[in-house]
Every structure is written in C-alpha cells, then in structure tokens.
C-alpha cells in the first residue's frame, strides 16, 4: 500500500511525499506529484486579490501572489510554499492560514481561501491521478 503524507512546512507551505513503492512506479508518481505542486503554486500565484475594503490604506504590492513557489526536494517529495515577506517577516500565514488552517487574520477571513483547506480539497484529484499513473505503468 502506498501512503501519501501531506505535511505543512513552517507557516505557509506544504510538503507532499510517499511511502515505499516499487522502483519503476517512483518515476511516474514523481512526475505526477511535481505537476500537482506546480499547478497548485501557479493557480495560487494567479489568484485574484479580493476587492479593496472601504477606506483601505494598504497599498497592494503583488508580493503575496509572487511569493508562491513549488519544487522537488527528492524523488516523490515535493513542496509548495509562499515566501512573501515585508520588513523581513513572512506574512502568508496571516493571509491564508497556518499549518492547521487557523491563524488567518480576521481581516482576511472569508476574503482569502485557507491554503490548508484548499490543499486538502485537491488531494482526492491527486490520488486519482496517481492511481491512473500506477495503473498505466503496471499494465
């Protein structure tokens, strides 16, 4: 049985990795997982900012959108992260929540998706893509 582990890294990112599996399947699943994290990061980068609030003083810089990254750590171990910072401090957790999906600043609640919930909602699609790839390789 292949296990998928979804671990949130630091304050704003996630690491996805698999347990043990046969060698030739690893390459196919690594590609699927890489495509998945790349898509999630790209879609988060292109997410539209919510409408400005009345009397909003904050000037939008686009740093948060540009802060989404993804990559490969090792085979079948990839990450998604947001490294947006202001004055040397990471702030993505206040916008999209922390590792448990909490910690989102009140001003952002209901205006920005909680990243953890968004990631968890996408996992069934990832599982199906992995299952399809494993079946394809096993034929």
Keywords:
two-stranded antiparallel ribbon; alpha+beta; 4-stranded antiparallel sheet; 139 residues; 40% helix; 21% strand
What does this protein look like?
- It is a single chain.
- The protein is an alpha+beta fold and 139 residues long.
- The chain has one domain (4-138).
- The chain is 40% helix and 21% strand.
- It has a four-stranded antiparallel sheet with strand order 1-2-4-3.
- A hairpin with a 3-residue loop joins strand 1 and strand 2 (13-18).
Summarize the structure.
The chain starts with a strand and ends with a helix. It has one domain.
Topology, please?
Blueprint: E1 4-9, E2 13-18, H1 23-45, H2 63-66, E3 68-74, E4 77-82, E5 85-86, E6 89-90, H3 92-96, H4 115-138
Shape: elongated
Looking across the biggest beta sheet, what order are the strands in? Answer: 1-2-4-3
Radius of gyration: 17 Å
Mean pLDDT: 83
* Beginning-to-end CA distance, first to last residue: 18 Å
The chain-level structural class is: alpha+beta
Count of β-strands: 6
Helical proportion, percent range? 40-55%
- Strand percentage lies at 15-25%
What kind of sheet is the major sheet? 4 strands, antiparallel
The tally of domains stands at: 1
């Amino acid at each position: 049985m292949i296990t998928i582990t979804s671990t949130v890294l630091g304050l704003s990112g996630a690491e996805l990795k698999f347990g043990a599996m046969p060698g030739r399947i690893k390459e196919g699943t690594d590609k699927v997982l890489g495509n998945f994290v790349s898509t999630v990061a790209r879609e988060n980068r292109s997410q539209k900012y919510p409408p400005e609030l009345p009397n909003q003083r904050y000037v939008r810089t686009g740093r948060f959108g540009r802060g989404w990254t993804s990559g490969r750590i090792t085979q079948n171990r990839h990450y998604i992260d947001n490294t947006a910072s202001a004055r040397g401090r990471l702030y993505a957790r206040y916008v999209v929540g922390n590792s448990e999906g909490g910690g989102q600043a009140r001003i952002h609640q209901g205006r920005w998706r909680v990243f953890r919930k968004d990631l968890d909602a996408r996992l069934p699609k990832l599982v199906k893509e992995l299952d399809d790839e494993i079946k394809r390789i096993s034929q």
